[in-house]
Amino acid sequence: MSVDAVMHTEFPAGYVVFFGTDGKVLMTPRSEEHSRTIRSMHIDSLTLGRHAKVISDVYIDFPADENSAPDFAIVREGAQREGKRYGFEDVLLIAEVVSVSSARKDYDDCTAKYGRYGIPVYMVVDPYAAEVVVHTRPTGSGYIAAHTHQYGSGKLPIELADGRTYTLDLDELPRPEVDAR
């Protein structure tokens, strides 16, 4: 798709649009719950410091053209971008927020991918199930450990590989409206 065509295209409201260098256009729907959940995770990350390297929807380079723009990621403090992207080796934690259309990808595909590349902590944050699954101890095919925590069960401290602790407040994660599905 040409730049001129992109500039004159009206994309549907409620979608995030990504443009790949290979000419692909990816559109992904976003819900209020999705956005509010990411915001809540960012607020909780302030305990790491106002200028901690916390990113959302920013591409991270993975081998074999498996690049990702996760919903939320914490990157090592000394990490340097190559161009505009961080490398997967610098990522300490990735979180994906489940939407109705992304459940299989977030629970299955991303768990295998992020484990395969050694991401130390992968969280699946599911507003519809009101749970957070924390995967640790990556392997070549996923993760050895997965622990499920219910929304409303207090603060969840998560040890990062650099010795810092990210604490997710499970009491503050937003729940979807009854008819939001």
From TrEMBL:
InterPro entries: Nuclease_put_TT1808, Restrct_endonuc-II-like, Uma2. Residues 23-149 form the Putative restriction endonuclease domain. The keyword Cytoplasm does not apply. Keywords: Endonuclease, Hydrolase, Nuclease. One of its GO terms (molecular function) is endonuclease activity. It holds the Pfam family Uma2. This is Putative restriction endonuclease. The lineage of its organism: Bacteria, Bacillati, Actinomycetota, Actinomycetes, Kitasatosporales.
